[in-house]
Amino acid sequence: MEGRLHRRKGGGLSFLMGGDGPPLLLLHGAPGSAQSWFKVGVRLVNRFRVIIPDLAGFGMSEPGTDGASLLDQAQAVRNLLHHLQLKTLYVGGHDFGALVALTLLQTYPDLHARGLILAAGNLLGDAQPMHVMRLAALPGLGTLLAGNRWGLRLLYQRAVINQEEFAWADYRRHLTKQGMVQTRRILHQRPGELRQAVAPLSEFLPQLECPALLLWGDEDPLLPVEIGVRLRATLPDALLKVYAYTGHFVPEERPIETAEDIVLRFYQEPPSIVP
Fold it and tell me: Cα-Cα-Cα-Cα dihedral of 225, 103, 238, 275, to 10°?
């Protein structure tokens, strides 16, 4: 049975929230918004207190002073958690949101993660940046790829395999003017800068003692499954789930399976959550 998520504002961010169980924070990627996790979240509110923010500069959240860096985004999320008076919670993220989630836990050791959910996130310092990010770093081409709806439609056609579940109309909802600006700022970071930011996170991974769930698409053209396999070997207690006929946008291409696997990972006897 699906529940309800309500739009709220606090701690400097706009966010969706619903449910009364253990807190579960879900962070979207770029491009993206709180809607990225919506179909998953409504299937989890009977088990969790689901919190899905628009990251700074995305969706309905105002941009911060910078907002393109992992530290800035992590600080904005920390402000939201402080507003909600939360320190112990489950933490999840997709794509850029996975990097923000790990930066949050590393930067603020007072936060306690009961469990970690990482969907298609490049958290290995020696992994090559996705080809679209290498192209976006070239002068002029970044604007072509990330600065307008035409370029981001090309990304959709390339990166989304299960377009029956995650239609272009759904993807288009992420493409607000400020969201596209913020996506361009993130993609314009040089590959060396990205690796420098990710390197401390890869060193932090073996220190995480909480159970982890890794979610991957078998046809992800941006981050191949091999990265997920390596992450599983790096994390002390990790389970890798690979979905067939799925690209890079796992929570939106496989919302029912994602919700089910989150419950199965963190509860021994889950109730049925399929509508």
Answer: -80
Beta-bridge mates of residue 243: 217
Length reported for the chain: 275
d(CA 13, CA 54): 7
Whether 204 maps to a domain, the answer reads yes
Q: Alpha-carbon distance 127 to 8, whole Å?
A: 37
Domain span at residue 261? 6-129+194-266
Cα–Cα distance for residue pair 252/166, rounded to 1 Å? 6
Spatial distance between the Cα atoms of 163 and 245, rounded to a whole number of angstroms: 10
CATH number of the domain to which 49 belongs? 3.40.50.1820
pLDDT tens digit sequence for 149-189: 777 888 899 999 999 999 999 999 998 888 888 888 887 76
pTM of the full structure: 0.91
- 96-122 pLDDT, tens digit per residue, is 999 999 999 999 999 999 999 999 998
